[in-house]
Amino acid sequence: MAKNNMAALLKQVADHQLSVDAAMAQLDDPGFMDLDYAKVDTDRQRRTGYPEVIYGEGKTAEQIIGIIQAMLTTKVNILVTRVSQQKADQVLQAYPDMTYRDDAQVMLWQQTALTPTTHKIAVVTAGTSDLKVAEEAALTAEAFGNVVSRVYDVGVAGIHRLFARLDVIRDAQVVIVIAGMEGALASVVGGLVDKPVIAVPTSVGYGSSFGGMSALLTMLNSCASGITVVNIDNGFGAGYSASQINYLTENK
């Protein structure tokens, strides 16, 4: 336990706000729940400001249900990514309060109401084929209390569509740009805005796109400054990072 947390705990005991037994329980808490197949991080929100997020791919529905049950004791909002419809149906039988978005394969249980942010995050896609990744990014950001503007299907093949929505994009505090094929949209947007741009390459494209590698390399080699890049199809990572950036200015 960090020194400042230890001091706060001792003060609560000294002020008779906390019993000795309750304080001992906190001192003995390892910060995770061991479920054998998973160690649920119950201390993550305190450390990082964000609760643990469940990555659903590769887990059974029963394992996801068990992790949700453990997380319910911490009263955090529960987000599960990469969940198939079949798994979601089983989870919803156990926890009907959860919602499922099949367009993003995301499940959410909003246990605690969050005050919407003043500043916005814009999620911009090159094409309709990028929407699954885009919605994963948008729903992740919204799960953490961010207001999101969606600007979809404005790729460079019809760049006038981008210019028609430029005011919405420039109004955002952080911009997430999602593109497959050659991934050029991130560089274009990066040269038009004065805000941080998070680029997300997608696996959309024909054979020579190599499952998103072409878009990834284009974004990594962008000549536009201020662009950072996350992994292929990683909408969650982009939404998470955008939320962190957005709250830096929100909390000033």
TrEMBL record:
Sections of the chain in a coiled coil: none
PurE domain location: 119-251
Molecular function GO terms recorded: hydrolase activity; transferase activity
InterPro entries assigned: P2CMN_synthase_LarB (IPR039476), PurE_dom (IPR000031)
SMART domains tied to this protein: AIRC
GO BP, one annotated term: 'de novo' IMP biosynthetic process
Entry EC number(s): 2.5.1.143
Keywords: Transferase
Pfam families, per the entry: AIRC
Protein name per UniProt: 1-(5-phosphoribosyl)-5-amino-4-imidazole-carboxylate carboxylase
Organism from which the protein derives: Limosilactobacillus fermentum (Lactobacillus fermentum)
Taxonomic classification: Bacteria, Bacillati, Bacillota, Bacilli, Lactobacillales
Gene name of the record: larB
